[in-house]
Specification:
The structure is a single chain. The protein has about 300 residues and is of the alpha+beta class. The protein has 2 domains: about 1-80 and about 110-155, Up-down Bundle (Butyryl-CoA Dehydrogenase, subunit A, domain 3); about 165-280, Roll (Nuclear Transport Factor 2, Chain: A). Helices cover about 55% and strands about 15% of the residues. It is built from 13 helices and 6 strands. It has a 6-stranded mixed sheet with strand order 2-1-6-5-4-3. The two termini are about 40 Å apart. Pfam families: Sigma70_r2, Sigma70_r4_2. This is RNA polymerase sigma24 factor. InterPro entries: ECF_Sigma-70_Domain, NTF2-like_dom_sf, RNA_pol_sigma-70_dom, RNA_pol_sigma-70_ECF, RNA_pol_sigma70_r2, RNA_pol_sigma70_r4_t2, RNA_pol_sigma_r2, RNA_pol_sigma_r3/r4-like. One of its GO terms (molecular function) is DNA binding. Belongs to the sigma-70 factor family. ECF subfamily.
Length: about 300
């Protein structure tokens, strides 16, 4: 049955759409559109359902991505991917964890739609150049050229990724304790010298409009934010996008969350999400799947 095949591959299809779009909401829209298209196909005439579904989702994602590019040019303040709560299984696949990390998703955002599709399908999910070419309607020669260009671009900008771990969570806990007690030096000791803090309020709530760089400036910013919290605010630890994170809940409502990028025992990046439109799915652990394909090429 068509529904059975779609359900079987849904985690893989969602993961592809999310990595291409940076939005769980848009990814769900793509899956809905793709399912309707799949329902119009006779499964008996499809030799490889998974490949066929990947092709549909890829092309629908490309359409959404091209439209989203225009919207994001008008976005108020810094843009961050819609955070997704990830389970322990994501951390077991280092490639998957890195590919959905905030840092990597921001790098992917700098690619054009076709480059992003090629990189995601080939370098993350392990599809051959020929399979990618069939998915996006390009020649294999063209896909090889795009893949080389996209890979060079990504590798020049990405930093070494460390997935959520007990050690990383301990660093986050020490950081938040230092922030709550106002210990500036203790904060700075936990921050990398070139740490970057990015906030996304979407123009709907108060948030820093531009990235803040450097341990001293980030420490001052964090202390300023902590002063705005009340005794009713509770801090909960979780994992988002394969990274250790803290959820700030006030009166039972998720007010904001911060994902932490850890490198060599220090915090290299803080990604603060306050945009309420992007927090509405933050309670649900979404299933991600890379399909068991070959890892990224060096």
């Amino acid at each position: 049955m068509a529904e059975d095949a779609f359900t079987e591959h849904r985690p893989l299809l969602f993961t592809i759409a999310y990595e291409m779009l940076g939005s769980a909401t848009d990814a769900e829209d793509v899956l809905q559109e793709s399912y309707l298209r799949w329902r119009g196909v006779d499964p008996a005439e499809v030799e490889h359902p998974r490949a066929y579904l990947v092709r549909i989702v890829t092309r629908q994602s490309l359409n959404h991505l091209r439209a989203a590019k225009a919207r994001r040019e008008e976005y108020v303040g810094s843009w961050l991917p819609e955070p997704i709560r990830t389970g322990p299984g994501v951390g077991d696949d280092a490639i998957l964890a890195e590919s959905v990390s905030m840092a990597m998703m921001l790098v992917l955002e700098t690619l054009n739609p076709t480059e992003r599709a090629v990189f995601v399908l080939h370098d993350v999910f392990g599809y051959t150049h020929g399979e990618v070419a069939a998915s996006i309607g390009k020649t294999e020669v063209t896909v090889r050229q795009i893949a080389h260009r996209a890979r060079r671009h990504v590798h020049a900008r990405r930093r070494r990724f460390e997935p959520d771990s007990d050690a990383g969570r301990e660093i986050v806990q020490r950081f938040l304790f230092a922030a709550s007690t106002g210990e500036v030096q203790a904060l700075m000791d936990l921050l990398a010298p070139d740490v970057v803090q990015i906030s996304d309020g979407g123009g709907k709530v108060v948030a820093a409009r531009h990235p803040i760089v450097g341990s001293a400036d980030v420490a001052r910013f964090v202390l300023g934010v902590i002063r705005t919290t009340t005794e009713a605010t509770q801090v909960e630890y979780a994992t988002y996008n394969g990274m250790p994170a803290a959820r700030f809940v006030t009166d039972g409502e998720l007010d904001w969350l911060v994902a932490f990028e850890i490198h060599d025992g220090r915090i290299a990046g803080l990604y603060g999400m306050r945009n309420p439109d992007k927090l509405h799915r933050a309670e649900t652990v979404l299933p991600l799947d890379r399909g068991g394909n070959s890892p990224w090429k060096p």
